[in-house]
Amino acid sequence: MPALRGAFTFLTRVPVPGAAPADWHAFRRSPWTFPAVGAVVGAVAGFAFLAPSPWTAAAAYLLAIYLLTGVTHADGLADLGDAIAAHDPDRRLAVLKDADLGVGGALALAVTLLATTLGVLALATGFAGGGVLVGGAAFRIVLAAEVGAKAGMATLACLGTPAHEGLGSAVVGEVGPRSLVPVAAVSVPVLLAAPPGALPSLAAALLAGPAVALLLLVRVRPWLGGASGDVLGAANELGRAVALHAGVMAWAIA
User: Residue 193 to residues 134, 136, 189, 202, 211: CA-CA distances in angstroms?
Assistant: First the structure.
């Protein structure tokens, strides 16, 4: 429970009764809590698909996601976008810490938000490449996408090294690759009892988040020297967007 309280405090804006400083330290040593929180966030956001209009469902999904998680992760994506856009590699760390929003950050935010919105609309309309999404498949894909995005953050925490001192350095590098085993154990249950024909879509959505995180990990090492809190936030936002489209494409292909 302390680790979960710390995870909800760090990853969401949900009020956590009885939260204490010790919860933060328990969370840092328990990356399995990332996908556990993702399951709750994804389940709540998935109720947006009860809306009668696909446009309303997409709007309700985005509202639920950002009401629950805040803008911290999106801010990390913006900071990373600005850092990558910096022409001088030696200034990237300085740009990463700069609070001002530049063109690179604005573009990263806009494209990612558009991709997320289009992915949700594809699910909300009930069609993916002409194949009708049946039953609770759309809800389950959204759930798997959110769990996968948070599993991507956990992947960075387990495999990454800190880029600099800060909030990210308190999470990244605290545990090692072995801690990915409980992360997988918490994540895989979203694949159980899948609706007919939905298992490939759920698997694609779930695996997309860690795949994006691994790609980021490889790319940011030469750029920034390691992973930071901004990279963690970017992995969450990018992982969610890619996961939604991965789920839709897997459904269309199947």
Answer: 14, 11, 9, 11, 24
SS3 sequence of 153-222:
HHHHHHHCCECCCCCHHHCCCCCCHHHHHHHHHHHHHHHCCCCCCCHHHHHHHHHHHHHHHHHHHHHHHH
Q: Nearest CA to 193 among 140, 253, 120, 130?
A: 140
Please give the pLDDT value at position 130: 47
How does the average pLDDT of the chain come out, rounded? 84
Per-residue pLDDT band for 20 (boundaries 50, 70, 90) equals confident
Could you tell me which of 214, 234, 241 has the C-alpha nearest to residue 82? 234
Handedness of CA 36, 41, 44, 46 (dihedral sign): negative
203 neighbors 141 (Cβ within 8 angstroms): no
pLDDT tens profile 149-176: 999 999 998 888 776 666 666 777 778 8
Q: Calculate ∠ Cα 213-74-158, nearest 5°.
A: 30
CB 209 within 8 A of CB 75: no
Query: Tens digit of pLDDT for each residue in 46-58?
Result: 998 888 888 998 9
Predicted TM-score (pTM) of this structure = 0.89
Q: Where are the domains of the chain?
A: 32-253
